[in-house]
Amino acid sequence: MDLCPCCSGQLYKNCCQPYHLWRKNAPNAEILMRSRYSAYALRQADYLIKTWHPKTLPSKLAEEISDAKWIDLVIHKSWAGKETNEAYVEFTARYRNKNGKAERMHETSHFIKQGDHWFYIDGIFNV
Q: Where would I find the YchJ-like middle NTF2-like domain in this sequence (predicted)?
């Protein structure tokens, strides 16, 4: 039994897999963030595309996700935005680039909810 890549400590089948298989929708932005991280780690471009708001979706996403080996994820905090359908998640993700160099990404991601679905909008990189 494999642990979920999102570092929740749960088994993948009980954590992010039901979202990846569209058996249920992420109930909040933090869960969507975790499931998207797992999708990067497992190279599931379709899930990333479907959970990225169409207005901000990059054109070369599939090429970008194949280069990194994701190591771990730490969620620092998550909070609601000014609007009821808006939320933010601050996290740090560590990965190895295609040359094997360890790097980290510290980001505050912006999400919105439309209907029953949360979508990633964009993020601000923190130094």
A: 28-123
DSSP string, the chain: -PBPTTSSSSBGGGTTHHHHTTSS--SSHHHHHHHHHHHHHTT-HHHHHHTB-TTT--TTHHHHHTS-EEEEEEEEEEEE-SSTTEEEEEEEEEEE-TTS-EEEEEEEEEEEEETTEEEEEEEEE--
Answer whether 118's CB lies under 8 Å from 112's CB: yes
Alpha carbons 104 and 127: distance in angstroms, whole number: 10
Annotated domain spans of the chain: 12-125
Q: What is the pLDDT of residues 29-83, one digit of tens each?
A: 999 999 999 999 999 999 999 999 999 998 877 666 677 899 999 999 999 999 8
pTM surpassing 0.85? yes
pLDDT in tens, 13-43: 999 999 999 999 999 999 999 999 999 999 9
**What distance in Å separates the CA atoms of residue 24 and residue 68, rounded to the nearest whole number?**
27
